[in-house]
Amino acid sequence: MIDVTFDGGGASMKELHRFAHEPSRQVVGEVPRWCWDIDAIVHEITVGLGHVEDGAVSLGIDTWGCDYGLLDAEGALVGPVTAYRDERHLAPCASARDLLGDELIYGTTGIQFQPFNTLYQLAADVVDPGRPLDRAERMLMIPDLIANRLCGSITGERTNASTTQCFDASSNRWATELLDPLGIPRSLMPDIIEPGRSDPLGPLRPDLLRATGLPDTIRLLASATHDTASAVVAAPIASDRDAFISSGTWSLIGVELPDVISTEEARTCNFTNEAGVFGTNRFLKNVAGLWLLQQAQATWSSSGRSRDWATLIAEAEEAPPFMSIIDPDDPVFSSPGDMPERIRASCLRNGEPVPEDDGAVVRCILESLALRYAACLDELESVTGRSIDRLVVVGGGSRNMLLNKLTARITGRTVALGPAEATALGNALVQHAALEGITDLHLLRGLIGTETVIEPSGTFGSDDLCLAARARFGRITDNTIS
Predict the structure, then answer these.
(1) Are strands 68-71 and 138-141 parallel, antiparallel or unpaired?
(2) Which end of the chain is more exposed for a tag (fewer CB within 10 A), N or C?
(3) Whether residue 463 sits in one domain with residue 412
(4) Under the phi-then-psi rule, with left for phi > 0, alpha for psi from -120 to 50, and beta for the rest, what region is 266?
(5) What CATH number does the domain containing 119 carry?
């Protein structure tokens, strides 16, 4: 939780409370699943709210997309909240795509096909032997669910709703033509509200005010509740020749557009259209990010070899360039587990040299991510017809200088580093816009400080070595089974 203050000199930020919220295994109807502990998350939020200083006027929530909770008629959760990294939706995804057809799904929603999209998770609920939809009155995305716990609201904010593949990208409504054939009740879907509106979602619950000491004048506002939507608000995008990367557990790479692109080429390249603030459209691809490195670090820690980020990056810098390459979007890397072993197995399978030590594994991850970014930029230019000269990187990955230098080198583009806490800053910027009646993104971004710039250089190997690595990457991705 971050406290953000705006004054004449820009924005100042102060961390109030940080907590982990990894999914855990729970048994649901005799079947183990990866689930989120929503009660624990709300408890930690309450702890953080207790640290809010006097003078705060508003609150805003943002989280990841796709996941949701089902509420019964009394407002209680029907069951545990399943995490998107669980695999229960794989078969329903295939069935739904066969039934509806990719052209209808994409033409309606403009959303990238991912097996964990909300549409397929709800389809999994339809065929669940426990029949959770029989007891459910409303589906709320995670930020909307948290807001419900804080103030009782039952609404769906548009930027997060747009990630579900249940939402019509052009008409701003739930896509009933997709829901009905799959047996997903229309009545589940909440009313849609816009981000940045000045009226609050509702008064905070009296017990929450007592527990935190917050004044009853503080307002819970509908910010851009999808974390990437908030992050892009805080990205110092200066022109239509800029692309962005929201770099964290995932890498969201794309451009900001005035309209949706749902052409056949966009569908074939699997780009997604997600709602931004003030009517903007985030045209992007959701690709693997630092999840691979986080899981590798967790594996080493569990074996008694805890390694901090600085040490791992230093070892990676000493490793030979482009020794081993993987496709970071290969589904074998999507679930929690022993990531170094999966990387070694992938290299063996694809005829790549196997990384022999931790530094080589980290180097393999970072170079492979930069190669993925380069491939995505080529597709972005083709689909949008725009030339992209600069990459604006925000989020936690903006601190990973090795990754960002590799990205500049491999993509051949200038990399501008924006705020590491872009999601929190963007969330606050939308609240500020609501309170001040601002509807101009350029004006909001003027409150963001200057960024560090990395130019492409001749480091990290010769041009020929970089081109050869891109060719190897293309061969590997062509062989990926999706």
Answers:
(1) antiparallel
(2) C
(3) yes
(4) alpha
(5) 3.30.420.40
